[in-house]
Design goal:
Number of strands: 17
Distance between the termini: 66 Å
Number of helices: 11
Structural class: alpha+beta
Strand content: 25-35%
Mean pLDDT: 82
Largest sheet: 7 strands, antiparallel
Shape: globular
Low-confidence stretches: 15-93
Strand order of the largest sheet: 4-5-6-7-13-12-11
Length: about 375
């Protein structure tokens, strides 16, 4: 249909040129036609009888040409004789994966035009920020931007996935591997290959210079439970396996794990937890104790339980619980792992908990230790 419209316009232009100059265009392909038309417009503009119509005809022909050349997703206007592209809604088929109609490479202005302002900005393991978008933890999405405010990272654990492979959050690991093939086994950095396979809890693929990690719910027939998409350039920002320890990263991992927990609770129909400041130092202290003394246990080396530590720090509660994680590169991987552990999952989705705090600490190799304290005061 677009080609027929273009040909119709070319006929009109050919008629105009023939009428004034007694000649028509020869077929030289779409690009050649556009170049010939552009050259002849210089001559046509010298004829005062055509001055009023040349700009309009040129604009329409260029617009049709852009559409034929697969530029349908760009509005085209003219300023000072130049074509200006304006971003518009795109088709999910433009890239392999889209989350909430957001794709790698989109501008921050487009994202926030769609989603509004972020609810939280916090540092991640790559030394840049996750911008978190949601409406009371519905439609939960995390987005990372580069210096040019272009999307270079995406994550969601809600049903926001669109894929040219016809994958949604209703599919499982078998569907994913049937459609996408064998996942990669590791990511090479220098002479080191960092393993990406992990007990079938997630698969990582490399598509068009983007690492796509698909997480599965072992408790629900390996259905997709989350997806992370990051560019190769974003991955290269991190020299080793872990991010570089800092107070900013610690704070980021803590609040990210809090947000991820609430986003999962919403998916499972549970009420949202509120942050409890007064218990955070208890959680941080236990994470630090494990990191410094290189152990991993709910009971510390003095034999104190999580409930002993809360009581010793003057935290009153009616019921409480604790989750621990260690060695995951980010809060995303930590949370997905906790959701696949029956005891930790029970705490995350517990009906009676009302508050949550998270404490993170790093050991000498930048490995993070996570402690979640669930409380009902």
């Amino acid at each position: 249909m677009k080609l027929l419209k273009l040909l119709a316009f070319l006929c009109i232009v050919g008629f105009i040129v023939y009428f004034f100059y007694g000649e028509t265009y020869q077929d030289a392909g779409l690009k050649g036609v556009q170049e010939e038309i552009s050259n002849d417009f210089v001559q046509l503009k010298e004829n005062p009888k055509l001055q009023a119509i040349t700009d309009t005809v040129k604009q329409e022909i260029t617009l049709f040409y852009n559409q034929i050349m697969n530029k349908e997703n760009t509005d085209t206007s003219f300023e000072n004789g130049e074509t200006v592209k304006k971003p518009t809604l795109h088709s999910p088929e433009q890239q392999d994966f889209s989350i909430h109609n957001i794709e790698i490479g989109d501008n921050k202005s487009f994202v926030e035009g769609e989603l509004g302002s972020s609810k939280r900005i916090s540092m991640n393991e790559y030394g840049i920020n996750w911008h978190t978008y949601h409406q009371n933890y519905q439609n939960f999405l995390m987005v990372a931007y580069n210096d040019k405010e272009q999307v270079i990272g995406l994550y969601t654990n809600q049903d926001l996935l669109t894929s040219s492979y016809h994958l949604t959050m209703q599919n499982n690991q078998e569907d994913v591997r049937e459609k996408l093939g064998k996942p990669i086994e590791g990511i090479r950095k220098g002479f080191t290959i960092y393993q990406t396979a992990h007990n079938n809890e997630y698969d990582t693929y490399l598509f068009d210079q983007n690492y796509v990690t698909i997480f599965y719910d072992l408790h629900q027939e390996n259905k997709i439970t989350g997806i992370q998409i990051i560019t190769e350039s974003m991955e290269k920002r991190k020299d080793g396996f872990y991010g570089k320890a800092s107070d900013q990263l610690r704070n980021g991992l803590e609040y990210q794990l809090f947000d991820l927990t609430n986003a999962s609770r919403v998916v499972h129909g549970k009420p949202i937890l509120t942050w409890i400041d007064e218990a955070q130092e208890t959680a941080r202290a236990h994470s630090k104790d494990m990191a410094v003394n290189q152990y991993f246990s709910h009971d510390n080396l003095r034999g104190e339980s999580p409930f002993d530590r809360l009581t010793n720090d003057g935290i009153s509660y009616r019921t409480a619980g604790e989750n621990l994680a260690s060695g995951q590169t980010s809060s995303i991987f930590a949370h997905e792992g906790l959701m696949n552990s029956s005891g930790h999952r029970k705490n995350i989705l517990h009906n009676d908990f009302k508050q949550l705090t998270v404490g993170v600490a790093f050991d000498d190799e930048n490995k993070p230790y996570y402690t979640e304290n669930f409380i009902t005061k």
